[in-house]
Amino acid sequence: MSVITTIEDLRVLAQKRVPRMFYDYADSGSWTESTYRANEDDFKRIKFRQRVAVNMEGRSTATTMVGQNVAMPVAIAPTGLTGMQHADGEILAAHAAKKFGVPFTLSTMSICSIEDVAKETGNHPFWFQLYVMRDRDFIERLIDRAKAANCSALVLTLDLQVLGQRHKDLKNGLSAPPKLTLANMINMATKPRWCLGMAGTRRREFGNIVGHVKGVSNMGSLSEWTAQQFDPRLNWGDVEWIKKRWGGKLIIKGIMDVEDAKLCVQAGADALIVSNHGGRQLDGADSSINALPAIVDAVGSQIEVHIDGGIRSGQDVLKAYALGAKGTYIGRAFLYGLGAMGEVGVTKALEIIHKELDLSMAFCGRTQMTAVDKSILLPGSFPTATS
Questions:
Q1: Which candidate, 176, 161, 164, places its Cα nearest to that of 109?
Q2: What mean pLDDT is predicted for residues 209-224?
Q3: Within 10 A of 220 (CB to CB), how many other CB atoms are there?
């Protein structure tokens, strides 16, 4: 194996080691994937101002996200089916995040359950991402389980009331556990490392759901339940109810519009995430980084603004922070690491991003993350609130 120096190196390795249906699930967007591609491409247009002859000793990328100390302004994003990229994937990623000093966010649609992750990380606080289902009794119990597991923030996703169409998933017959079609079996036979890992774990279903919902005891009954459960009626009244039930730090994910950002402030959220769901929902929507400045300008003094979508390097983190994002989230970047090498790969992804962030900050003449602002960017190269 060649030396791994970038997130792209991890992606290439993950593509070799993860079955196609699960690799494609992580590495795809909806419809034409134009928004998925724009998330990355629009970061590349932003240029730095290089500075010299500044004392670079004593640098620190440390800051806070929703009042919690972080080694850098990066959290591991909630991603569904993480435990299908690598056996026990959520637990391994949570371990890596804990050691590195950044938040880990567990998805409602995870393979390892809330209780699994809490137990395996010694009840180290992690964040939990909530999808709102029609079954409100299940949602109440899910929130209570997150509280019992010592979760220190709830990330409420608002942009999945209906599911965007992802062509690759339909063509691959995506499911968990995988549908054993001839094509999928042939493909899995070429991934012996993955198969061995999955054979050695009992965690192959949606751990937060199976056994926790009346009538859902296996994957057959689960697929029927989930098909009917994402709630198109979700509204801001539900946000108020969830905030009250939760009672802790609340982060609202899926905001791409200034008016919705203002509603997050009115709802009393602690932070919002500028996010188009990684280009997996509304194809043709703006990129996250393009949408960020207007939202920061409108509400950045009233609520902490975070961002996800397209972040593949420490330079991307630095650009987003310079434009006002107090936190960033990596989804695909850590999944590539996980699929490539398990926990070691997630740690490698965090190390790559941290080193790029630290060195780029230094080249821009800053020694503290908290001193970074848009003055480190080349005028005219970055999106503004009015552009």
A1: 176
A2: 72
A3: 9
Give me the catalytic one of 86, 95, 212, 277: 277
What SS3 class is residue 52? coil
Peptide bond into 383 cis (omega under 30): no
Nearest to 267 by CA among 284, 255, 285, 283: 255
Sequence ranges of the domains in the chain:
7-376
Which residues, at least 6 apart from 30, have a Cβ–Cβ distance to it below 8 Å? 36, 164, 165, 166, 279, 280, 281, 282, 283
- Per-residue pLDDT tens for 141-152? 999 999 999 999
The pTM score is 0.96
Instruction: State the pLDDT confidence band at 1, using cuts at 50, 70 and 90.
Output: low
Euclidean distance between CA atoms 282 and 36, whole angstroms: 10
Question: In terms of CATH, what superfamily is 7-376?
Answer: Aldolase class I (3.20.20.70)
> Do 274 and 292 meet the contact criterion of CB atoms below 8 Å apart?
yes
- What confidence tier does 231 reach under pLDDT thresholds 50, 70, 90? confident
- Catalytic, 277? Answer yes
- Find the largest Cα–Cα distance for the chain: 67
